[in-house]
Structure formats: structure tokens, C-alpha cells
Amino acid sequence: MEPDLFTAAAEDRREKDPSSSPLAVRMRPRTLDEVVGQQHLLKPGSPLRRLVGDGAGGPAGASSVILWGPPGIGKTTLAYVVSQATQKRFVELSAITAGVKEVRAVIEGAKRAAGGYGKDTVLFLDEIHRFSKAQQDSLLPAVENRWVTLIAATTENPYFSIISPLLSRSLLLTLEPLTDEDLSALMRRALTEERGLGGAVTLPQDAEAHLLRIAGGDARRALTALEAGAGSAIAKGEPEISLRTVEEAVDRAAVTYDRDGDQHYDVASALIKSIRGSDVDAALHYLARMIEAGEDPRFIARRLMISASEDIGLADPTALPLAVAAAQAVAMIGFPEAALTLSHATIALALAPKSNTATTAIGAALADVRAGLAGPVPSHLRDGHYKGAAKLGHAVGYVYPHDVPGAIAAQQYAPDTVHGKRYYEPTRYGAEARYADVVEKVRERLRGGGSGPSGG
Predict the structure, then answer these.
(1) pTM of the prediction?
(2) Does position 50 have pLDDT exceeding 80, yes or no?
(3) pLDDT in tens, 393-423
(4) Which of 173, 159, 172 is nearest to 129 (CA)?
(5) 389 CB contacts (<8 Å, ≥6 apart)?
(6) In terms of domains, do 318 and 388 share one?
(7) Where is this region: Disordered (predicted)?
(8) 38, 57, 193, 427: which has the highest count of C-beta atoms within 10 A?
(9) Which residues does residue 185 pair with via DSSP β-bridges, in sequence order?
(10) CATH number for 224
């Protein structure tokens, strides 16, 4: 049986008994106007509108579309809406389970449908970044010859995960995370519309807030949790989905956490202070609270990057690169998988040796500058790359460090106002012990018995 026949059979079952489908499926938008969020893609005259022939300019004419964004924000939905609006067959494959054989079967089926019935095919390929280069190459003939309209979805940066020939032939659409307002509107629609819950139950504000926290910006997760809560409330004969009912239905306790209030800052502060105090278990507890509360993972990642320099510094020079890598990974993958990356970084930072010398050193230097201790740059350090610089004494007498043994030239670098000041005082914790040994030797070499130029 061809893959598109599976899809057709599933659609037949849904049409005969729509209530048997999950709420997330029943509430799938039928037109672009029913799509929540993604307003930057839905404006009149936008590429997506033109793709379905909606608005001036007619169809955009792209033979391939790539939808890039985090999970649960409507990539599959948009592909389905495009197929419905353009009256094309809709075939769905996942790159996790499908391979070249399945892709070729769809392409052959598309050719027969176009020749026999005059009906074009939309091939929706989810998780395309999981396809190898060779597997992606197999799509090119179908895209170039327009045997199918390919709509591919990815959660990873397509410039790194999709081959250039396919990317250059595609219309790239970047989807944005859904906001709480988007998800709230979607749930309210699901509560009242006949294809949804048909007004069978209501949803009080505290229960809605908990569902939004559970969803974490994922529409599918929001509707799945809402359906579970509604089913439980209806089974108990209750007219509303209470917070307790939601908790029981989704087996997850409501986290008291206001992302716009004091607890937002209190829990974030506790996370950083637990890392600073090397209490890895407490740090993981506060991280879990932030995740469960629906905190923006990018906010958490930013705090970890700050902690890496503020509290660890040179005691473990790998801490900052690790935190930066975690932030980049979080931005690319989003929740729920980002929780693993944040846990990885939090554990590493909490157990790293600690030093705040990067913090105290720049703090002391800034204090002197703000106090007015910012004298003129020594003449021998000034720029000498222009005509007349030597007449002014600029760069005259500068000793090039690479010309002397050890590459440390005995000369004055700081202005007279702070010459001899010591801002950096290394600890002997972790890798910084090496810097503690080195810095004294370097400072002694720089003094060099006063043989270097004095500046002025």
C-alpha cells in the first residue's frame, strides 16, 4: 500500500467519526485565517498567502517550502492548510521512519495522480534534518520537475541541516514560538466550537494558567492536556475543568510561579546562588521549577552564561564555552529537549571550581575609571601608523614583545594614574592556580628593573 493511501484511509475514518480523533487533530485549522500565531507569515501579500493563491500576485510559484521553527507551533498544520487551499493531495512522511524507498513511492504515486486524475500532490516531510545528504538528494528531481510540492519541516537551522541545492530551490519560512495569548485563544476556541468540546465544560483562569505552563508554547501539548482535563471533568460530572482536575489528569502539580512577578526573579536568583554555592541538587530543583513554570529557556541559558564568568571564571576556563554552547543549542532545539541541555550546563557549572576574580578585577578597574583615573595613554603605546606620528613621539621607543626572550617586554603599559595598580588577584582554585603562578612572574618581568620606556 502506498504511503498516501494510509493518509487517505485515516482521513476517511475521521470524516465518518470525527469525535474519535484527538482534540488537536479536530481543531486543526482548515484555512489560513484559522491559524493562530505566525502573523508575520499571514499578512496580505505574504509569500504564504501567495503560495495558496490568496491575494495579489497569485501563487508564489515555489516548488518547495521549508518551515523552520520549534516543535508544536503549527508546521504540519500549515502544510495541511496549503494542500487544502490549493486542492492538492496531501501525503505526510516523517524522516525519522521513512527513507528513499518511501519517498520514491510517493513520487511515483504523485506522477500517476497527476497523469490519471490531474491532481497535484503536496508531500509534507517532517524532521527533514534527519535525512542524510544522499536522502535529501533523492528529493531534487521531484522538486525540480514539480512532480510534488514539497513542504519540509525542521527544528534545526536549515542552513546547516539542509543541502544547498534543495535550500536554494525552496521558500524558507521561519515560524515563531506561540505566545500564551495564542495558546489561550486556541484553547478557548476548542472549548466552545462543536468540532472541539462544544461548550461541555468551562475553564477557570487558574486551570488555564497551569495548562499554559504545561504547554510551554506547544499547541499540540496544550490541546492534549486540555482534552485530558475535560475528559476527567466530564467523567466526574463537573461543569468546569478545575485546577485540581487538570493536575490529576496530566499528573503534574501546578507550580506557583509568576513569570512577571517577584518569584520570577527569586527563583532565578536562587538558581544562580545554588550554582555559586556548588549545591548541584538545589540548582537542579530551581531549574526544574523554572522549566515547569514555562520560563523562556533562552532566559535561563543567559543566566548560566553570566554565572560562568561571574562565579567560575578562570578556575575552569571551559565553563564559559560550555554555557555558550548550551545557549546556542537551546536556541536551536527549544523545549522539551532543551531541558536536557540546561541540566547538562547547570550540573557542570555547579560542580566546577569557583572564582570570582573576573568579577572583582573588572569591578576595581571600572571604579578607578569612574573616579577619573584615566590618564593619557603612554606615548610609546600610541598609534604610529600615520605621517607625523614620530614627530609627536607616538610609538617611539615601543618594544615589540616578540623580539625579546619570553615575549614579555619590560615597559610601561598602564597610564601613570594607575601604573602599578593590581586589579587581578587570582585564587588557587582549579585551573586558576596556574594563573596565580604565572601572573607574579609576568609582573616581575614587566618591571624589568626600569629598563623600559617610562611613557609620558
Answers:
(1) 0.49
(2) no
(3) 787 778 788 878 878 778 777 787 888 788 8
(4) 159
(5) 382, 383, 395
(6) no
(7) 1-24
(8) 38
(9) none
(10) 1.10.8.60
